[in-house]
Amino acid sequence: MARSPDSPAADFPAELRARLATAIAAGAAFDGWGEVGIRAAAEAEGVDPEVALYAFASGGQRVEIGAIDAWISTIDAAMMVALGNGVLEALPVRERIRRLVAFRLEAIAGQEETVRRALAVMAMPQNAPRAARIGWRSADMMWRLAGDRAADYNHYTKRATLGALYAATLAVWADDTSEGKVDTAEFLERRIAGVMRFEKAKARLLKPAIPAFSVTRFLGRLRYPAA
Known about the structure:
There is one protein chain. By secondary structure, the chain is mostly helical. The protein has one domain (14-223): Tetracycline Repressor, domain 2 (Orthogonal Bundle), CATH 1.10.357. Helices cover 69% and strands 0% of the residues. The chain has helices at 14-31, 35-45, 49-55, 63-83, 93-107, 112-122, 128-145, 153-174, 182-206, 215-223. Helix 1 crosses helix 2 (35-45), helix 1 packs across helix 6 and helix 2 (35-45) packs across helix 3 (49-55). The chain is globular, with a radius of gyration of 22 Å. The protein starts with 13 loop residues before the first helix and ends with a helix.
């Protein structure tokens, strides 16, 4: 089977890649996400820098996007552990989404410059397709943890909407200098309210105005006509 263009080196231990990605993120504000940052993180973790570069190479793409992808994967994994196994079941959907996004923001607390640099790399035209897949993956995980089981077109619209909400919130968060990131919290609440209104409006719009024809109901009425 052919490797996906996003697939990292298959023979590199996933746990070590995650540890390196975390170390790269810790220094990315100063060293960036590229070769300099990867080499510095590798030396700090006692890993051969050439081996570390290999760990984030995939499909001829530059290593920056590979390192960012691996870092975001560690956040995805932490979110699954912390908020999986029914932790959110008793909450309304709106609160589940808020908790999920808030968890991700708390996981990167204090790393605003790291995030800004990551967003700049992901915005590069050559990285746009992979960045979109990374965003979709995180949005899909969030909706699954929120209990969504949609298999029709709603599966796609919900993830696209949540992906946009999270991306917008992350951009606000990265530049938010308010006490306790209160501006980000307020922005998130407004965006979630907007999504909830959109979902309700969509459900009303797509609800059939005329009940679907039922052969069983029709035959029953023939046999037992209404009084």
